[in-house]
Every structure is written in C-alpha cells, then in structure tokens.
Here is the input.
Amino acid sequence: MLKYLKKYRKWCILAPIMMMGEIFMDLLQPHLMAKIVDDGVLEGNMQLILTVGIRMILLVLFGGLCGILSGVFANLAAQNYANDLRKDLFSKIMHLSFRQIDKISTGSLVTRLTNDVTQVQQMVHMSIRMVVRSGLMFLGGIVMLYQQSPRFALVAAVALPLIVGAAAIFLRMATPLFGVVQARLDGVNNVMQENVAGARVVKAYVKEEHELSRFDLANDLLCSTNLRVATILAFLSPIINIILNACVVAVIWIGGRTVEEGLPLRPGAIMAAITYLSMLLMGLMSMIMVFQTFTRALASAKRIREVLDEPELIRDGGFAGDTGGRTGEIEFKNVSFSYPSSGGKKVLEGVDLKVNKGETVAILGSTGSGKSTLIDLIPRFYDATEGEVLVDGVNVRDYDLGALRAKIAMVPQKAELYCRPIEANIRWGKDGADPWEIKRAAEIAQADDFICATPEGYYTQVTEGGHSLSGGQKQRIALSRAVLKDAEIMIFDDSTSALDLSTEAKLYRALEETRPDTTKIIIAQRIASVRGADRIAVLDNGRIAACGTHEELMQSSPVYRDICFSQLKEDEQ
Amino acid sequence: MTQNGENKTALPRGFETGRATQEVSYAKKDAAPQKTNTVDLRGRPGGGRGGPGARMAAAVEKPKDLKKTLRRLLRYFGRESGLILLLFFSVIAVTVTALIAPSLQGSAIDRISEKSFDSLPRTLILLAAVYGVRVLFTLSQTLTAAHLSQRTVKRMRHDLFEKIDRLPIAYLDTHSNGDVMSRMTNDVENVSDTVSQSLGSLVSGVLTVVGTVAVMLWHCWQLTLISLVTVVLTVLVTKKLSGVMRKLYRRRSGALGALNGHAEEMITGFRSTVAYNKEDDVIAEFNAASDELRTVGIKADILGGSMGPVMNCISNIGFVIVAAFGGFFALKGMITIGTISAFIIYAKQFSRPINEIAQLYGSVQTAIAGAERVFELMDQPDEDNRGEKPMEKIRGDIRFEKVNFSYIPGKQVLFDFDLDVRPGEKIALVGATGSGKTTVVNLLMRFYPPDSGHIYIDGVDIYDYTRDSLRKNTAIVLQDTVLFSDTVEQNIRYANTEASEEEMRRAAEASNSAYFIERLPEQYATYLKHAGASLSQGERQLLAIARAVLADPKILILDEATSSVDTRTEKRIQDAMVRLMANRTSLIIAHRLSTVRDADKIVVMDHGRVIETGNHEELLEKKGKYYELYMTQFAGNQI
Here is the structure.
C-alpha cells in the first residue's frame, strides 16, 4: 500500500524536515534562556539579555512557521493518500464478484472503506509527523540534558524504564477490558433494540417491568465495566506524574549538590534541565501513544489490503451481445453449482431448462431449494461450477459483462432503494428517461397510484433504507425501475412477496399486455402467483423435479401437488 | 416520443407538484446525514482526540433553551451531592497545590544561587510533599468524575428506558428506531461525560487563572502585567481561529456523512448497481464525494493543525518576554532568579485553562443540546392509562361501535366501523392493503385510541378496563415475529413466567415447535443470539405461536404472515394455528385460503369500511367484492 504514497513523496520528505526545524527551535530555547539567566541576569549584562531575547523571538517565529508548514505538508500527503486509496478501494469493491462480497460481507466492506481508511490516513499523518516529533524530542531532550550536566542524564536513565513499565502494565490491564466494554455495550443496545422494535409484543404481553429489569442488568454490567476501565486508567496519569515530579526534585537536589561541590553548574542550567527533562518524558509518552495508534492502524491496513488483493474473479468475455434475431432466450445446460463456503454441497445439480423468447416461466420451490441461485447465474452474479448457461445461444461467460447485463432487468427479493427522490430511483433503470416514460413504468408496476397520492409525488425523497415506505411500496418502486430498463429478459426474484395478490395479478397482466415479447422468469412461493405462467418449473433440492403448466403438474408432479395442497385445500381441485 | 415539446410544459401527474419542491428535497437530503454524522463522531471518539482544538471544533449544536435544560441537568447531577462535593474539594486541592509548586521550585533554585545549601533539603522535601498531595488529589478527582459520570449515565439511561416502555406506540411508529436508540446511547453518554468532566475543568480553570494571577501579582506586579500580553494574544487568536474552524469542521463532517452514506448505500445495494450496469456512475459519484472530503479535510486539518504551533509560538514569546523583562527586573534587584523560574511556569499555567474554557464552551453546548433531546423524549406524554376495572373471566365478546380513526388528521382510515364478534368465534378480516385491517387490531389492543366511537369487550368499554388486564387477556401473533435475546424457554414463557416446565413443554408441543427445539444444541436452554437470527422464519413463527399458547388468552389476534415458508413448515404452522384458535375468540388478518374457509365469519374491508360479512359460501354466492378478491387473491385465477 506504500505505492500510493509515492505520488506524494515530496510532501512526505518536506513534512519531517519542517518538523525537525520546529523541534530544534524548541530544544534551543531553554538553552538560550539559561544563557539569559546565567550570563545576562547573574552577570548584570542587559545588552546580552536583549540580543539573546530578540534571537529567541526570531527562532520562535521560525519554529512556529516550520510547525505550520510541517502540518500543511503532512496533511497534503495523508489526505491525498487516503483519497487515492479510498477511490481505488471503492472501485475495487464495485468490481468484486458476488462470491467475494459474500465472503467479506457488505457491512465489513463499508467499515473498511470508511473507518479503516481513516485509521490508515491517521497513521500516515502520524508517521511523517508525530514519529519524528516524539523521537526528536526524546533524543534531543537526552542530548541537551546531558549537555547541562551528565548527572542529570542519570536521572532520566532511572526514570525512563519506570515510565515505560508503568504505561505498559496499565495499558495491558486496560486493553482486554475494551473488548468487554464493547460486548456490554452491545448487550445494552440489544435490549433497547428489541424493545423499540418489538414494542407491540412487549406491551401486548404487559412485560414492561420484566424488560426494565432486563435492561437494568445490562446497564449495570456496562457501567461497572466502564468504571473499571476508568479506574485503571485514572491511576496511569498520576503515577507518571509522580515519576516526573520526583525527577524534578532529584534534578534540583543533584544540581544543588553539584554547585555545592564547586563543579561548574549554574542555576540557569538547572532550570533548563527541568524543561528538557519534561520534554524528554513528553516525547516518550507520545511515542507510546503513537505506538498504540500504529498497532490499531496496522490492523486496518491489513483489512484494506485483503480487499485490494482479491483477485479479479469474473473475466469479461468481450462478446458485445449482438445476437441478431435471437433475443431473450435462456438455456441452462446440465448446470451444477455449489457455494465455496458450503463445503462442496451442491445447491444446484444437473439443471436443464430452456426458456424461449417471450415465455413466462415460474420457478417454484421451498426455501433453500436453489431458486435464487439458479437465476443469479444468468447475469453472472455467480458462475456455474459445472455446465453452462446460454443467453441467446451464447455462453454467458463469453459476453462482455455490460452487454450481458444490459439484456436483463432483475428485481431482487429485497428492494434496494437509494436516498434520492422516487423519480431518480426509478430512472436508475434507464439514464435520461423522461417523466412520461418513468410514469408509464410506474403505472405498469402498479406504483403510480401511491406515488401520486404523496404530497411531493415523484419527487418524494426516499429516506435512508426506505423506512418511509411500506414493503409493498418499496417493491413496486424497484419493479418500476426494472420495467423502465426495457430489457429482453425480466427476472423477478420473489419481488412481489409484499404485494397482495390482486395488485400482483394486475402487475403481471399489465406486463403481459405491454411487454409480450419479453422473456419473464418469476420466482414465487405462492401458488396463486405462478399459476398463470406458461410453464412452472418445480425446484426440489437443487434439481428440477418437474416442469409444465399448472394443470399438467397437478397431474404428474407429486412435489407440486404437495405444495399446492398446503396452500390451497385438497378439495379445491 | 414525438410530443416532446408538450412534455416540457405539461408534465405527467405526480411530477407537476415536484419541480418546485425538488430543490427542497435535495437540500433536506444534504442536511440529514450531516446531523446524524455529528452524533456519530461524538459518540465514538475512536482515538480521535486528534490535534489541539479538534474537540472544540467538532460541529457545535446550539441548545434551544439553555437555562431550563441546564437547571434540569444540574438536578440530575445534584442527586450525587456527596460525589460532587468530593469532586470540588479534589479540584480545589489540585489547583492550590499546582499554584504552590512553582513558587517552591523557584525558591529551591534561589537557595542554589544563593549557595545556602543547608536549607535546600527542607525546601525540596516540602516540594515533594506538595507534589505528592497534588498527585493524590488528581487521582481522587479523576476517580470521582468517573463515578459521577457512570452513576448519572446509569440513572439517566434507566429513566429513559422506563420511559420508552411507557411511550405510546404512536410515538415509536412515527420516530425512527435509530433516533430513539441514539438518544439512549450517544446523547446520554455524551451528556454525562461532558458534564462530569467539564464541571471539574471549569472550577479548576477559573481557580487556576485567578490564583495564578494573584500569586504572580504578589511576586511582582510589573512582570505580571507584561505577561498578560500573551494572554490577550492567546484569547484573540483562539477566538478568531475557532470560529473559522468550526465552520470547516462542520463542512467536513457533512462531506464525511455524504461519503459514508453513499458508500453504505452502494455497497449494500451492490446487486442493483451491478444488475443495472451502474458501476462506473457509482464510482464517479463516489470519487466526487471523496475529492470533496479531501479538499475540505485538508483545509480543516491544516487550520486545526496550525493551532498547536501558533499557541506554542505565543507561549514561547511569553517566555522570552518573561525572561527579558524578568532579567531586567532582576538586574534592578526587584526580583530574584527563582521568581523568573516561577513566572515561566505560571505564564504557561494560566494560558492553558483559558484555552480549555474556550473549548469547553463548545462541547458543553453540544452536550446540552444532547440533553435537550434526552429530556424531550422523557417529556413525551405516557401511554393512555385510563380505566380502573380489572378484566377477569371474560366470555370474549367483542363489539366495535361506530369507530372512526385516522393516524394523520385528515386522512381517515376507519369510517363508522361496526363489528360484532360473539364469544369463541373466528373472524377473518379480508381486504386489500390499506383497507384498515391492521388498524382494527391496533385499536383493540389500545395501541391507538379511536377518534370517536367505542369498542366493548363483554359489554364494557375497553377504556374502562385497566390497560394491563385488557392486554393480559389478549394475545397477538404478529407477521414480523419478535423474539428476544434469551433462552428458547424464556421466549416461550414470555407471557406467563409462572408456567411450570410441563406446561411450557406442552405449549411447545401444541405449537409444533418441539421438533426443532429438541434438535437445538441445548434444547430449551439454547440461548437465542441476536433475537433469534439463527432460526428460520418458520421456526420463529412457531415460537411466537408457542408463546401465545402458553399465554392462554380469551382473545387471540393473528396477523398471518404473507410470505410463506417451505411446505412442511407451512403445514406445521397451519396446524398449530388451528389448535391455538380452538375455544377462543379469534381475530385474524387473513392471507391464506384455508383460514378464510374455516372462519366462522369473514369481514371484507374496503377503504376503512365493512362492505360484506358472511361465511365463505355465502359470500361467494353473492358474487360481490369477496368473490372478486377470492378469485384474484386466493385462487389466483388471472395472471
């Protein structure tokens, strides 16, 4: 991931240089001050006080300028770096295959793109700035201290291991507790979530008191754990302060003894030594902090690299998709499929199915029978493990991905809407569609009525996750989008489950009227939804158990009859 | 499209209202993530104590009624008066010792320069003692603040949770869960942390400034006045910079919110992005958002980062001023060298609290705005708790009389709704979505009060019964099953904690859920994580039925799930429901043919009115609305 930094090499070099400037100025000052005190004040040399004073102010200004510039360069480097990284990462994510997305999970991808990138950005910023700063302050402090008197350096030598030891012990004690705090917080959130989301059940069973005691338990646990962490950390800073203060006392005492012994040491130097000592220790403390952020950021960097290093699994075929007269024909030839995570267990096995142009084929089967997997193979969301899938007589692997997917309009089970006006959500299906087209699509999808009933009509804003809409409304907007796409193949993946059957029936009727030539594949669980399809394929345990019209299947397929009887009553037929 | 010219002037219905409001909607969208994001940022400091001033500049919200909220907040903390006293005492002790220490240090240096080495050890011992006292009280200050904060958080959260369970359903239905939750966690924590920490800082800040100036004046007033120059500089610069910075940080969190929102939306909606070949558009949008964040971020961080060096600069200039003038005064014999050493520390010491107080101002304001949100929730009216009559041994006779209801004024949902259910009857409510079926249930459970009209159970108005006894006599099984993160057993026992082990198991048998529970790793003692996310939808439904069986209510309300599960589970659910309904008055929002066929009475609803009632055969013969519904909805004759 360092290669992203190459472009900003000059900032990366300039920032630490400027930082060095700032630190040198900081280090020089106590020394100059000692000079003012020892040579100026004690010797009664006002002239020297003034000249050194002016020199000091100039140095201070120079140091400040260096400090600001160092910040500017470090920010330019870190933020540009993070920006490039973020863009590449997002683009990479958009080109991952479904298999890879499933493996990492969408939630984790979002975190990597946001939190982890920020962590890495901070790390870059820190390493070109803080590392230099704390390191220089530490080393410079030691050198300057030694210069005042070697004995002072001895004080530092004793104090250092003590401080490092104390910090290490306390951080080691507190660190595992951070995980516990997180778990306790989840506990509190859990009870809360359940009560807010399940308020009807809590109230209906009059369980308010029970829930309150459950919450109190979780709340107590969280607060006591928080308190434990706070208590441990509360000791850290006083202990470090004790060490620091003891050092100050020691320096003065040693200074006094040195002067008493008649060795060359002056009061100004003692004052400077105190300042250097605190600088040195501050440098050390911030090194510990930097180290902590580093370990966290390295974990983030690893998570980002995992995504960037994912191989490109789906290869474009390059076939542009001009199949002449054959449009909307789909064929599965002996297709088998298994998810990598399922340990070779086949979700689909030897599926043969041909769907002709303009035909409506319904796929029926219980949860887990492989319906969604089967249709995911058509737009190459996944690739078949064995056998081949043909669209218009051409293997889907030979298509240019864009060209293949342009032929297909797919409505997923869970309507995916975006925080934009309804109109823009529908227009997602076809760039530059005009209002009339959008309205027409919504009419077919039975969405126009409810959209027009809202005060802002098509410009109604869809809120995050579409919470302002009912499940059926969301599905109808997603359906409108697919209708607008005007593709040769339409696939409905149980995407009408939240519609009542009369609305669903109207939708299919409107589609049949306006799009007679479009091939339609419908996944559904309700017999009533699929009854009127040209053919119904019954999927059972990854195999096609039967295929035919409703009447044929009632005669020939026991599995179909079974499903029917559970939904309609036996004597119905 | 040939009539393109027309299109521009006459837009289709649904679009015409829009044009004008379009800008508004976009503006709303921009504003929304910004707000939620600041909450997030505050909620998780995540190592981001960042540069100096980062806290101060993280977008400040303005409270609406500062005084009132503050008073109420202080009352909350006031209950811990012992802790607060201890906190104040510690703070004062720390401040005083911090004031004494530099003077002692200065006099120690004087001893050396005067070469009076005999008295040096005594001074140093005194100095060490003062340091020791300071450290002790620092410790007590931190610990007290932590206890104060945690205790207050705990109580506030408890109160808030208690409130949430007392809120009317209407409130929860109209507010997003995320909003309510964020008040419980982020706001509460933020409020108590800020208050308990800033209480100490404020006191110590004021004390330090006053004390330092006093001690300095006592040492040498001329030098004090001169050092005050740096204070003025500090205050001016801080004020100037933080104003600009606040704006920049607000813009940055807006940009960050937009970026995160976009990323989350596009990654979770990956399927639709890919299916519509939208990858390139989406990437371009993301890149634009990312660039914007970088630009604003660089500006904000450079400014924020300059704060440190600038302050450093000012304090160093102060240092030179003190050294130069101090040297001059020392030459004149007005002060000693030790005084200079003390002044250098004092000058540093008092510019720090001034910065801190300036920063506190911002974070306290944000915290108070958070407190306002918390109190606003606490001030919501409780759920209606009318009625004194306990409901006991009812027959289960339900009557709706001329009930009118609307969720939003002006949009009526039920019109003069009448319904008569005799004890033990099974009533199926049928109708298109939005016809008012669920509303009937909401009113019967007293989740919402009717606008007019009455609902009677056994001839008594339900608002004359106590609310709890009404609900105890009715059980509901909802479409979206609600399970709790607890053991299977506790989930079944939810309605009836006193039930014996035997009764609990019988309920599981009766609801057909025993078969899968026994296959769970620890059977009935299995802990359901994440509210039963590991169970299939069918299994969750069966558990909800088991719960209702154990509740053994006189009145049962069922909202049948629309999406079905696999064939065998479906059968099990059906059987369990039939068993559950036996000997009870049941009200079913029906989606299944078998349910309507078996119902004693079918009530067909349309736009908030009952339009047909009768049993299946009667209604079919009528060839009215039910017939139409039946043909399309249940038999699915036309596709």
